[in-house]
Amino acid sequence: MSRIVVESIPITGKTEVGPGCFILDVGRFSRLKFIRPGQFVHIGVPDSGLLFRRAFSVYDVDMERGFFSILFKVVGRGTHRLSQVKKNDTLDVLGPLGNGFKFPGKRETLILAAGGIGMPPIYFLAKRLVERNYDPDKVLFFYGAVSKSELVDVRRIKKLKTRIFLSTDDGSFGFKGFVTGVIKKAISERQEKFRIFACGPEGMLRVVDAMAHQNGIPGQFSLEAPMPCGLGICLGCIRPLAGGGYTRVCREGPVYDIGEVVL
Amino acid sequence: MKPDLSVEIAGVKFSNPVLTASGTCGYGEELADLFDLGRLGGIVTKSVTVQPRDGHPPPRTAETESGMLNAIGLANVGIDKFIEEKLSFLESYRTNVIVNVAGARLREYIEICSRLNDCLRADMVELNFSCPNVEWGMEIAKDALIAEKSVAAVKKVFSRPVIAKLSPNVSDIVLIARACEAGGADGLSLINTLVGMAVDIETYRPRLTNNTGGLSGPAIKPVALALIYQVYREVKIPIIGIGGIMNYADAVEFLLCGATAVQVGTGLFVKPDIPLEIISGLQKYLGKHKLKSVTDLVGKLRKY
After folding, report:
1. How many CB pairs under 8 A join A and B?
2. Does residue A47 come out as left (phi exceeding 0), alpha (psi in the -120 to 50 range) or beta?
3. Is B212 helix (H, G, I), strand (E, B) or coil?
4. Is A181 on the interface with B (CB under 8 A)?
């Protein structure tokens, strides 16, 4: 595991990309080049009276300009306060934490499944795959959200030039229905060797997990859990393992193999 | 000259008075990714039981105002694996290792402590007489006679210092403290968590599967200080203070109330390198107040 640091570092950019959805660019992180897709950072919420940090998957790393980005949606007090920070404010960042996705071999067709605000680690994985010359035609990027306004920052994904399938639950943009339905259809139409990577709401992951299992498709998904410490010392963010016992999402996860965790 | 941060508890020397509290630092492995554990005064390991335990189902932590609730349920690897893997991991660090021990029956405390007696890396044991999250956890905590008998029995099988960790969830903590001292305890650590609860108003469910949990963090600091203040005047053995310590100033308050050393717990979840900040803060505080030793603060509370 790469070394973990705690650093106070400045916000170098903030963009509102959808209703209550924000991208924060955070600069001068000493471990920037070691962050792997699927890993997360644990960020202190400034001047909030909130004791615990909040965990965010790393959305993007810009090595040239020297910052990483997180993408989040305001859902509670922590994210609300974080939505109010300004450029040049400093954030207390602990990371990089957890395990990243295992990079696939080159011959498989990749199904990247992003649901709602679970999109960030999937984008970051896609970007690194393309940077490593993975054939973008073999990367099928599925991104679904409740409605059009929640499909955020699509331009960034499109720049990767992977195949992209957008969907909304209400049909306000792209395919109508759950992202899992779109994936199911794509799988049934193709005779290829697939591998799947997913992140999104738990209901979606449950379907992806079952679907992958049924079709013998290997892969991984990234889980979310409220995390007091992010390091594996509080034992708060546990999930049951399929083989019995518990796993710490922050330490053994947040990325798990298909079928590994009880969803 | 740099002020002296070292303290002594029951003949064991600590390089500084800042320890990590049981159940908040695992067995040290995770924190070792962040800093050299040798910089800590000591590390108190997660409660170990005879058999491994998975602990309670999730959710088992909840954030509350200035604090947190937890009901982990003594999840731990069990004494066999603890000795084989966890204690040997700690072998290479120059810090004191205090092994926190929990049991359902006195004979389990005795079994664990007699095995630990052969493990020299266990510099001390801390008896968990106070876990609020398991049914049997509170029995010893509440009954002075049982507490005395238990400490005495452990003292017979463990030749190095024995610390009793006390619960605040009792009607008279001084009574239990005195009983532990009478049983031969070499020190006391207080306080463990306060029983608390939080409710989700959408689902009508408690926010922990265990319904209630232990409250920790800054919210309990005033309670901890008051209890240490009471106990300090009634016992001769040293006290290790615990309860919501988040910075050096908090630590100084505990020392003034009578603690010889402190344990940081929930603070580690907020800032995992917080012990180092507290240690350097103490150093500066002592220098600023022209104090030669951190022990000059212990119990030096002034009267009105």
Report:
1. 86
2. left
3. coil
4. no
For A232, which of B26, B68, B271 is closest by C-beta distance?
B26
Contact A78, A46 (CB under 8 A): no
Interface residue A228 vs chain B (CB under 8 A):
yes
A190–chain B nearest CA distance, Å: 40
The answer to whether B49 faces chain A, any CB pair under 8 Å, is no
- Residue B249 belongs to what domain range? 7-50+74-193+215-297
Give the residue on B whose Cα is nearest the Cα of A50: B66
- Asked whether the predicted pLDDT for residue A190 surpasses 90, the reply is no
Query: What are the tens digits of pLDDT across the range A39-74?
Result: 999 999 988 889 999 999 999 999 999 999 999 999
At A84-134, the pLDDT tens digits run 999 999 999 999 999 999 998 878 999 999 999 999 999 999 999 999 999
The total number of structural domains in chain B stands at 1
Name the token pair of A7: 């650093």
The DSSP call for residue B138 is: T
Strand partners, A42: A55, A94
**Angle at the Cα of B259 from the Cα atoms of B253 and B265, rounded to 5 degrees:** 75
Residue B60 lies in a domain: no
Complex ipTM above 0.90?
yes
Quote the tokens at residue A207.
Answer: 């379907």
Interchain contact B25–A (C-beta under 8 A): yes
Residue in A with minimal Cα distance to B70: A236
Residues of B annotated as catalytic (active site), given as ranges? 131
CATH for B11: 3.20.20.70
